[in-house]
């Protein structure tokens, strides 16, 4: 509490001597106020004002002291807020880039074509040549035996020089062969030749100037005739014999595989 001045104390003692505060009625208070006189009233009023100021001043001072703190806090918050927002923006996940627009026309899907593995070529244990393969009879006569040796009996004899044969087996110096009818046996390898021939299977086969059914006819071959085999395409082969040469359908002769190609 603020310090009370000596004048206030003197006024308080004078009022007390004149009965101020001894009566609880309003009349006693009025008489005491009148007894103070104008100097006492001024002193008492000034004391009351000083007392009021001393009571209210601390609260007002505290409010004034708190105001800078509140301002500082607000300013600090204003300074921190952008930093917090920046950190929030930095911590926020970066949006994935928008995918490109789908093209209007998609590339056609190419069908997967399954490729067949090439068939394994069987080879003879002696010559390492493919089996089966085509050969021809070298001489005018060839004995066909039941087994791969001279001790085996002769089943029959081939008597057409250049006759086409197909080798289907090997053993030592012997080759197992068969003709167009599937008949055969074992023949010594010296009786065979690598020259390719064919036998005409149809009567009066037309030999044409080129591999085309509309091409001109050069000659005609009789059925059973043995001819020399030349170039072969998928459906045509070129043959020659008796001075004539031309193209025939592959199906009209025996001595070449249907899928065989020759240059």
UniProtKB/TrEMBL annotation:
Q: Which Pfam families match?
A: SH3_4
Its protein name is: SH3-like domain-containing protein
* Organism expressing this protein natively: Paracoccus isoporae
Write out the ranges of the annotated region (Disordered). Answer: 66-114
Domain SH3b, by residue range, is: 132-195, 196-257
Look up the domain of life of the source: Bacteria
- Provide ranges: composition bias, Low complexity: 87-99
